[in-house]
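Changelog note: in this version the structure field was regenerated for every chain. One regenerated record is shown below for reference.
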Amino acid sequence: MERDSRKLSILLKKIRINNGEMLMDMANKLNISSTFLSAIENGKKKVPDDFKDKLCSNYSLTTDEIKELNEGIVINNDKVGLTLSELSGPKKELAISLGRAFDTLSDEAVDELLNIISKE
C-alpha cells in the first residue's frame, strides 16, 4: 500500500470535482461541517467510523476508488483494525500471529507476505 498521506485528500477532491461540487456541498451530503471535512482532508482530524458508509451511499464509487478510500482512511487514522469475532478460526489465528510477529518481521518476510496478498 502506498504510504501517501495525501491519498484521502486527493480522492475526496476528485469525487467532488467529478460531481461538480464544492467542499460545502459534500459536507452537507455527509451531514458534517465543511470545517470538519476540510480537517479530515488535511489529515488534522481522524476519519469517523461512519464516514466510509456515508461517502459510499452518497456517491457511486468505483472499486478502485473504494480501495483508495480504504487506504486513505488507514493512512489518515494511522491504524488498522480487525474484529476477531467475525473471522473464521484459521483467519483469526493468522491475524493474532501476524500481530504478535509484526514488529520483528524482516523486510524480506514483509515483501513475501505482500506478494502473497497482492495475488488474491
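Spot check on this record: Helices lie at 7-18, 23-30, 34-41, 51-58, 63-77, 89-101, 107-118. DSSP finds seven helices and no strands in the chain.
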